[in-house]
Amino acid sequence: MAVQWKSSTIHLFFKRLLSLLRFQMAIQLEYRAVMWIWLFSGFALPLINMAVWTSVSQSGEVAGYSSSDFVSYFLAVMAVDHAVAEWTVYHWEWMVRRGDLSPKLLRPIDPIWELAMENLGYKVAQGIITVPIWILLWFLLKGSPYQLTILTVMGFLTAVVLAGILNFLIGYTFSLTAFWIIRVGALYEMLAWGIGYFFSGRMAPLGALPDWVVSLSYWLPFPYTMAFPVDALMGRCDQEEWLRGFLSQIAWILVFCVVRRVLWGLGLRKYTAVGG
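and the corresponding structure tokens:
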């Protein structure tokens, strides 16, 4: 009887998640103009960085990267960046400030799942547009081939999924500070687009940066949201780096799960809004 009850509970939980995903995908498809704006903004920075580094490498390889390697690298950054994109902090800040969080606390599901399905729904809906454009760019820019063996592809996809979960948890955990800080979005931008952008591998391959940057990055979660999946696809990971990358992703996910849980409990005691 207990096993049957547990099975039905799990089934109901995933049924709710699927309903949330369908709802969020429908919302995203309603705002096509916004999707195009975010699409072009997502392509802009990698293309700019690509232009800079391919120009630098015209006279010779940089940290083992040729011009065509830089093309492949930043095209991979585009793809991974779409898969791991995260913006929860802006929604959460607004919900706490206006009191919109209040009715969500009465629902039979944690708000984190609603935000996760919104995140996933956006990526699936925009992926319909993103994939053809990405393929076109690949043929036009002529990068070096990726290491597309079965093990590499499976490892890359696993790394991307874990990177997406990790990046979402980083953003969601940081967003919970909105219970204490009014404008948490500005602080998050400093973290994500300042420190995170530099150490994640979005601006440049970590191997092309000073040694102290690479050494310090190993102690931060950011490289495991971008640099590790991209290097995996580029075939630049040996067995030790594969193992370290996966273990680091899992370890950081567990860390942010614990911190999120603690901040959630403390935040609910602090939260006093009655609007919504």
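(Above: one complete record from the training split.) The longest helix spans residues 239-270.
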